[in-house]
Design a protein that fits this description.
The complex is a heterodimer of chains A (911) and B (374). Helix content of chain A is 67%, strand content 12%. With 911 residues, chain A is an alpha+beta fold. In chain A, the strands form five sheets. Chain A has a six-stranded antiparallel beta sheet. Chain A has a five-stranded parallel beta sheet with strand order 8-18-19-3-20, sandwiched between helices. In chain B, the strands form four sheets. In chain B, strands 4-3-2-1-13-14 form a six-stranded mixed beta sheet. A six-stranded mixed beta sheet of chain B has the order 5-6-7-10-12-11, with no helix packed on it. In chain B, β11 and β12 form a beta hairpin. With 374 residues, chain B is of the alpha/beta class. Classes of the chains: A alpha+beta (911), B alpha/beta (374). Chains A and B meet through α6, α7, α15 and α16 of A and α2, α8 and α9 of B.
Chain lengths: 911, 374
């Protein structure tokens, strides 16, 4: 199909009428914005896909037709498979028309109107019957090759719907010489997959879940198996019981056969054992007799020994009593001697203690006297001290008064000295600066100096210092005024006068007339002050705690002395010698008495210790005498008891001779009894009792064990019989068979299912493999064509299509998917894939591809590479490229078959 | 001369659980019903008694209904029935013979010989020498105690009849279980030995016979389904009349199927069965059939399964093999045709892979047919 020409009138911005003619191969249609490029291809689209009678009720269809004010008219001429077609449509609701004129290759003409024209057109274009351009789905492959603005970057298969895919598949099948198998094969494949999925999970596991076919038989098999196992266990138990009862019965039978012989053997050993037992009893009787005799002999011997012992103890006791009596007498004598010494010792103690007491009193008297003497001396000293302090205090008071009356102190004196010194200096300075008027009397004359008369005698001179204008009048004759001209004389004079005034004021304040007097007063004041300090220190020394304290101490000392004197009187006796009058003599007396008193105290202590020692000795002697008496008493009591006991025993057992004879007879009887026992025992040993006992024990054990075993077996037999006849045994056979059959049935079912599952999987695998192989071959031409074009832009790139012609992978360096690519790359790939698909779809018959500004996002470098692609595609396709970027497309225009300037065409049409 | 009916191995209570639903129950009931025919035969043949040479019951643990059926049906007999325990229902504690239910329900005429003491029968004209199995496995020859003098004191001139259960020993097997010397009749001066254990009627030595089971129990073709009417006399060979009493027919059949005509032949074979309603068939099939023929075969077998008591199919050797036109009807081009080619190639490999490929093709054909018919 090749577009030859389009004529448009009243279609949007294209008022027309205008006509555009296309060439085969690559056509570039350029024009400025709003020139109507898109409107032109929209008009062509409308002519091919929209019905002429737009509307009725469907206003939206009409609304999609751009209207330029009048009735839109479009006429499109194209060739297709040797025939030439002219479709002319006027789009209106009621008055729309369509006309298709066909010129067949043989020159025959065909003219179809309206509905017939539309039907034929749809047939030619492979559109769905009744398609009105509303839905891309009805338009076969047209949306794929009709790339409207901004659709190039879409995934190409979005513009490839069912009809387009079918056409593409048909063409690919034709190219391959075979078909995939078509929808029938796909549906069969789906059925095989469904059959597989009936048995298998997506992960390749058999479906054993509740909704899977294996669930029920597996559960049945499990349940039957469990049931069978339970029943089989019961059966095994039953059979084991059978085995056991057979064994028990056999053993029971054998035991019952051997038991009589064992019982006979037991009886024989029991007879031997009875004889042995009788003999053993005789031995026991002999033993008991011997034991009895032994007891008698021991008893007689014991009594005889005790009699001998009593006799010996009696003699010993009597000897002891004699000895104890002597000891008691000796103890009493010693006691009496000690008691006799006591009175002398007590007298000595009293004498020593009396002397000690007397000397103690005398010492106390001497000590008190000494203290009275010392207190008297001290009282006198204190009184003298108090008097000294009183004198000092008085002087201190007097000096204080004088000091208080003194107005000139050191500071005043120093200030006066300082003023005098400064006055002297000022005076000297004034004098040095003043004029000195020397007047020498030539004769006596009276002179007035400043009206003050100075008698001047002849030959005497008078010097007057003139520190200020001075009027000297001589004898009323001469008056001259001396005006001193010294520098700052007034200031010096004023300073001197001020100092004079200050001195006078200070003297007046001090109450003195001269500075010397003030200096003397200040010296006196200093002396007074020093003396006051000395007095204070002396008072402090004499009465550190103050005069009052001194007074209180004096009072206390007087009281103490009085008290001591009273105390001294209490120690005295009339016959006591007089006490010394001085302290040293009193001290010596007291020391002497102290020495004597200590000696008397030591003597008294010695006497007391001698008395205490004596008392201890007395206690010991008394105790010793008492002990001797006690021992004697005990010995006498013991002797009495022994005598009594002997008397009792003699009365009981006879005299000593009788007792001795009895003891000897018992010993002889014991010897006889032991002989008899020994004889019997030897006879018993000769009967081999151990062997007899062992034989009996063996026989008894054998019979006991046999009977016990028989009892045990009989009980076991009864128990087993009971179990063998248990109610659940009846019918066990049938139940086992039933469970076994159920298990086998379930297993067989599972086997059949497994086989079916394997079959389904095998069929699916075979179909899948074959389908994959076929598809690989089937898509070959499309992939080859796409990659051929693709490599003009992307060297070494490959593409992978899926079964619906979707791009699943684009491999440039690494595998990508379409949607991750940039808009520009998607655009280029989209154009390439559409061109390739169009090439496949076209086959031997060229197809048009409309690219309405399809590479706007493509950069210059890629755009340059796309030019050979377009050129290559245009060798077997008609490519209509619309653009508003003529400058960019000039390079394309150079390789294009035809370049169309829409603006120019419009201008020509208008003119 | 004394006449009696010799039977054995009734194995009442045999479950037949491999036969589903009521047909299994029918098979079990047939074993009870055969007792009636044995009793009737005894009456008709004027037999003096009936001997059951072991395995009256299938197991000592059969249910009580089975016990009741046995007792009730033998209770109808006007002649005594002497039975010995066999290996399936051996005597001793725990045996069905000592079950309270059996003791309660046992009819007077049913005598169970649980010990080896000779028993005079038929008014003293005969003496039975029983060799019961009182354990499951009796070591050695269970008839070893039979001597020429045994039982002689009870009836010196009576016909001597041995009654035993077990296999006939051959040389080298003397140490096995439950074995019987085939020359025992001669050695013990017996006029007849009634044997049980073997399920088909056959002679087993000098004057010794197996009666076989009166109602067959399996597909082995061994002359089962009979009882023996024995006429024995002192010092003369016994007369044996084999009488068929079994109802169920257990039939084995094998066919090689390679085409429609083979299926038709098989259909005719089924058609010619005496009484399909009383018949069990074990059918062994091999060969290769087209998908269409397979469906025809399935239809035939399905029909027969509805008629027979039981149809056991052994068809592992039968493979579906689609004809060219069948496979072409699925697809002649495209990947489906390619898959068919591959699977067909696999079917010639043999073994399970080939069988699986054949089944896969059959499944494909079925899916195709289902889709077409849908």
């Amino acid at each position: 199909m090749i577009f030859e020409r389009v004529r448009v009138r009243n279609f949007g911005v294209l008022k027309g009428p205008l006509s555009v003619e296309f060439g085969p191969g690559l056509n570039v249609i350029h024009g400025t914005n709003e020139a109507g490029k898109s409107t032109l291809v929209a008009a062509m689209w409308a002519a091919l896909t929209l019905r002429h009678r737009v509307g009725g009720n469907d206003r939206r269809t009409l609304a999609r037709v751009p209207r330029g004010g009048g009735v839109p008219e479009v006429e499109v001429s194209f060739t297709h498979r040797g025939a030439r077609y002219e479709i002319a449509k006027r789009f209106a609701e009621q008055r729309g028309t369509a006309r298709l004129r066909v010129t067949w290759p043989d020159g025959r003409l065909e003219d179809l109107l309206d509905a017939e024209a539309e039907a034929r057109l749809q047939q030619i274009l492979g559109l769905s019957a009744g398609a009105d351009g509303k839905k891309d789905e009805d338009l076969g492959y047209l949306p794929l090759i009709w790339v409207r603005q901004e659709r190039a970057a879409r995934v190409p298969t979005e513009d490839l719907h069912e009809g387009g895919r079918a056409a593409l598949a048909e063409q690919l099948g034709r190219l391959q010489g075979e078909l995939l198998g078509g929808p029938d094969a796909d549906r069969l494949f789906d059925a095989a997959r469904a059959e597989r999925d009936r048995f298998w999970t997506p992960t390749g596991q058999l479906r054993k879940s509740a909704d899977g076919p294996f669930h029920a038989p597996e559960r049945a098999a499990r349940e039957a198996s469990a049931r069978l196992e339970s029943l089989a266990a019961r059966q095994r138990e039953h059979e084991a019981d059978l085995e056991r009862i057979e064994a028990v019965a056999a053993e029971l039978h054998a035991l019952r056969g051997t038991l009589p012989a064992l019982e006979d053997a037991l009886r024989e050993t029991e007879t031997r054992r009875a004889a042995l037992e009788a003999l053993r009893r005789e031995v026991e009787a002999a033993r008991q007799q011997a034991e009895l005799r032994r007891a008698h002999a021991i008893d007689a011997r014991r009594r005889w020994d005790e009699r001998c012992d009593s006799r010996t103890r009696l003699i010993t006791a009597r000897e002891a009593i004699g000895r104890l009596r002597a000891e008691a007498a000796e103890a009493n004598a010693l006691l009496q001697r000690v008691e006799g010494d006591e009175l002398a010792l007590r007298t000595a103690v009293q004498s020593a203690e009396h002397l000690e007491s007397k000397l103690g009193r005398l010492w106390q008297r001497a000590d008190a006297g000494l203290e009275v003497l010392r207190l008297s001396v001290d009282l006198d000293r204190q009184r003298a001290q108090q008097e000294r302090v009183a004198g000092l205090l008085r002087e201190q008071a007097e000096r204080g008064q004088r000091l208080a009356a003194s107005t000139v102190d050191e500071a005043v004196a120093r200030r006066l000295d300082d003023l005098e010194r400064r006055f002297g200096v000022a005076e000297a300075e004034l004098r040095a600066a003043s004029a000195t008027v020397k007047i020498r009397g030539l004769a006596d004359a009276g002179i007035l100096v400043d009206d003050r008369p100075y008698p001047l005698r002849q030959g005497f001179s008078l010097e007057v210092t003139a520190s200020q204008p001075l009027t000297v009048r001589v004898s009323e004759l001469v008056e001259f005024i001396v005006v001193p001209g010294g520098r700052d004389l007034d200031g010096l004079r004023a300073q001197r006068d001020e100092l004079r005034i200050a001195i006078d004021e200070a003297l007046a304040a001090a109450g003195v007339s001269t500075t010397e007097a003030a200096r003397q007063l200040a010296a006196e004041r200093r002396d007074l002050s020093r003396r006051a300090e000395e007095l204070t220190r002396e008072i402090q020394r004499e009465a550190p705690e103050g005069p009052d304290a001194l007074k209180r101490g004096l009072s206390v000392a007087a009281t103490t002395l009085s008290t001591r004197r009273s105390a001294l009187a209490t120690f005295g006796r009339d016959d006591d010698p007089p006490l010394p009058e001085n302290v040293s003599a009193a001290t010596e007396l007291r020391a002497e008495l102290d020495s004597r008193r200590s000696a008397a105290r030591a003597a008294a202590q010695r006497e007391r210790e001698r008395l205490a020692s004596h008392e201890r000795s007395l206690v010991e002697r008394r105790a010793a005498a008492a002990r001797a008496a006690d021992r004697l008493h005990d010995a006498e009591a013991s002797l009495t008891a022994l005598a009594l006991e002997l008397a009792h025993r003699t009365a009981a057992d006879g005299d000593d001779e009788t007792l001795k004879r009895s003891h000897l007879e018992a010993a002889a009887e014991l010897a006889r009894a032991e002989d008899s026992w020994k004889t019997q025992r030897a006879a018993l040993d000769d009967s081999n009792p151990v062997e007899v006992e062992a034989a009996w024990r063996r026989a008894s054990d054998a019979v006991g064990a046999g009977r016990a075993r028989i009892d045990l077996l009989a009980r076991s037999h009864a128990e087993l019989s009971g179990r063998l006849g248990a109610a659940d045994v009846a019918g066990l056979h049938e139940r086992i068979a039933e469970a076994s059959a159920a298990l086998e049935g379930a297993r067989a079912h599972l086997e059949r299912l497994t086989e079916q599952a394997g079959t389904a999987m095998h069929l699916y695998d075979a179909l899948l493999e074959a389908r994959d192989r076929s598809r690989e071959r089937f898509l070959g031409p499309l992939r080859d064509e796409t990659e051929r074009l693709l490599r003009l832009v992307f060297p070494a790139a490959t593409l992978v299509f899926d079964e619906q012609f979707g791009l699943t992978e684009i491999n440039r360096v690494e595998a990508d998917t379409f949607d991750v690519l940039s808009v520009g790359t998607r655009e280029q790939l989209g154009v390439i894939v559409r061109l390739a698909m169009a090439a496949v779809l076209a086959g031997d018959e060229p197809l048009p591809v409309i690219l309405d500004d399809a590479l706007v996002a493509t950069d210059e470098r890629r755009f340059t590479r796309m030019i050979p692609v377009l050129q290559d595609a245009a060798s077997h396709l008609q490519v209509l490229m619309l653009t508003c970027h003529w400058s960019r497309y000039q390079a394309v225009g150079q390789v294009a078959q035809k370049v169309i300037d829409l603006d120019e065409i419009k201008r020509l049409a208008a003119s | 001369m004394v006449r009696f009916v010799h039977t054995a191995d009734l194995q009442l209570g045999m479950p037949f659980n491999f036969v589903p639903d009521d047909r299994g129950a029918k098979l079990r009931d047939l074993r009870f019903a055969v007792i009636d025919r044995v009793v009737d035969l005894a009456h008709q043949s004027e037999a003096s008694f009936i001997v059951v040479a072991g395995d009256l019951f299938d197991a000592n643990t059969v249910d009580d209904r089975t016990v009741e059926q046995a007792c009730a049906r033998f209770g109808r007999s006007r002649v005594p029935v002497y039975a010995i325990p066999g290996n399936h229902d051996h005597g001793g504690p725990g045996s069905v013979w000592q079950r309270a239910r059996f003791k309660l329900s046992r009819p007077e005429n049913l005598k169970v010989l649980e010990d080896r003491q000779p028993v005079p029968v038929a008014g003293g004209h005969a003496v039975l020498l029983p060799a019961p199995l009182i354990q499951r496995h009796e070591r050695g020859d269970t008839t070893a105690h039979w001597t020429p003098s045994l039982g002689r004191e009870l009836a010196p001139s009576a016909v001597r009849i041995g009654l035993a259960h077990g296999g006939v020993s051959s040389f080298g097997e003397a140490e096995g279980h439950n074995l019987i010397d085939p020359q025992r009749a001669q050695r013990a001066d017996l006029d007849y030995v009634a044997l049980g254990d073997w399920h088909g009627a056959r002679e087993a030595g000098v004057r010794a016979w197996y009666a076989g089971t009166p109602e067959p129990t399996g597909f082995k073709d061994n002359n089962a389904g009979n009882v023996l009417v024995v006429t024995a006399g002192r010092g003369v060979p016994p007369r044996i009349d084999t009488v068929s009493v079994g109802r169920a027919r257990w039939v084995r059949h094998a066919e090689t199927l390679n085409g429609e005509e083979d299926i038709e032949r098989l259909g005719r074979w089924f058609h010619e069965l005496d009484d399909p309603l009383e018949t069990l068939v074990r059918l062994e099939l091999e060969g290769a059939l087209s998908f269409g023929d397979m469906e025809r075969l399935e239809a035939l077998l399905s029909r027969m399964e509805g008629r027979l008591i039981y149809l056991r199919r052994k068809d592992a050797g039968l493979m579906p093999r689609g004809r060219d036109e069948e496979l072409a009807s699925i697809a002649t081009a495209g990947f489906v045709a390619e898959a068919i080619t591959r699977l067909r190639a696999e079917t010639s490999a043999g073994g399970e892979p080939a069988a699986r490929a054949a089944r896969a093709l059959q499944l494909l054909f079925r899916l195709h047919r289902a889709r077409v018919s849908a």
